[in-house]
Model the fold of this input.
Amino acid sequence: MTDQGARTRVLILAAVLAVAFGTLTGRLAWLMVVERGALAQLAERQYSRTVVLHAQRGPIVDRQGGPLATSTETESLFAQPRSVGDPVRVAARVAPLVGVPEAEVHAALTSSRSFVWVRRRLPPAVAARVRALREPGLGFVEEPLRLYPNRELAAQVLGFEGVEGGLAGVERAWEEELAGTPGKAIVGRDALGREVATPHVLKAPAPGHGVMLTLDRTIQYVAEREIDAAQRRTGAKSAMAVVLEPRTGDILALAIRPTFNPNAFLDVASPDHWRNRAVTDPFEPGSTFKVILAAAALEEGVVRPEDRINGEGGSITIARTTIRDWKKYGWLTFAEVLQNSSNVGAIKVGLALGRDRYYRYITAFGFGAPTGVGLPGESRGLLREPRRWSALSLPTMSIGQEISVTALQLVTAVGAIANGGTLVQPRLVRATFDAEGRELRRFAPRPVRQAVSPETARTLTRLLVRVVEEGTGRNGAIPGYAVAGKTGTAQKLDPATRRYSHAPGVLSFAGFAPADDPRFVMLVLLDEPAHEKWGSEAAAPIFAAIGREILRYLEVPARDAQPVQIVAGQPAAPRRLPAVRLVSTALAGGEPARVMPDLVGTTLRQALAALAALHLEVRLAGQGRVVAQTPAPDTPLAPGVVAHLVLRNDAPR
Done:
């Protein structure tokens, strides 16, 4: 080989090497300068993953601070599919442990994505068994787990939480306060996808705020126990009890059956069990709605308790439709109309009241509008404007038909009677608080309006006490306490015939106790019971069973419930309601003379009942039993006289 040839080959080789080196240098420069950001992100995706750290959800507690919903730390299983060795083998090992179908686990492990969740929020024992497999490509991130320590207790009120936050009830309505602020962390992996270090937290999550409800766990438990037993006993489609504190509007209990366990809400047979029927499901109230009719008629002066109404032998025909009573009645006082739940009597009073005035009071008691309690899916019920009423609407609405209300609307309206005529917005949330337990915000009771006067409320209360003591509500009586209440038996429309079915519909009882100083108002409702026919038989005993336990729990002392016998004085002359309009009939000789009864030693309730018939203004001093009175017993009562009563707790019985 000549020197010239060797030199040529060396030059060619040098040129090739120079070109190769230049190309490599250029490529390195391109990668290091131009592609640096993209490659760095790719490397980070391969060896680490930024994940969202969910904040610990704020607790939900009852009015005493008892836990209703809490959170604890748990672990969620994820996979990096590119680092998984044999997806078929890993899926077969992991699926039985985490309770996910093997096909779903395999699909996750073979995903084209670099990060997939396999199962969120595993129980600690399950997470430990998966970790023991030591499979490449699998890892864990700590996340909070929502727990409901009382299982089914108040399930429809609380709702439940899913992966994306609150999905029902308070959990959904107060999502913004409960959820907190999520954080971020980096999960590091080696070349085989194995965890090389604990997740590096970039931003710590901030815990959510707690929510204190007005519910009382003890009262809620008692209500649910009795409602559960009643549903099983009667075979009802559903059952419900709603308990309120009338002065504040606080919801003390809201018990619904059927129910579910929010810890395993997906396991429930029907999602209908999740629904809070007390706010979402309107129904025709039937005779319990006569309380609203009575309040309106008494307030407008259309009728007085002693006014007489012809029961027409138990039936009345209006607009070619005959409406019947459950029993044939002749002449009844208005007090007896309520006491016996006479449909004919109620219809006559409704016709005398008139549709415009009746509608005004129906809306004044909150019907036709949401209560504003703040729960998802609340219904406003069904209430048409008077211009859309038919000739039959006023009579049927007088007996609680052709109008739909929610359980919460009805118990709130009855609570207004117990509260001296003042309608108060129902309240479910008392306060919110931070992670250290410091109160952030308190929600005060909200009076809405004065639906009727205190005098009307007191008069109606006395009539409702008679319903329980002498009328259809006897099974709602609580020994030792004066109970005011009203029964209801509402038929349902048959979709086929468009007529009211004779089969049991909605049976109910609404009332409050003690009548002279109400501590609770309650509605009990049974929907389509198989083994009961009347609200007086089915719902009233449940009210008594729950109410007895509530009064004992609240340490409300029993009082003498025997009625006072009025030995002097006569009531004002009665009026009659013949046909379908009111006609006042005065006695020829005018009103008889009135005298003051002897009230010393009686309870406040007994004294007020005695004086109510005399239409006196009463002024009180002290508490307990009457120890002194003005005017003195047997004193003739002049028009406009005021009765003064002095009461004392240690007065002899």
Notes: Residues 193-197, 561-593 have pLDDT under 50 and may be disordered. The longest helix spans residues 3-34. The radius of gyration is 36 Å.
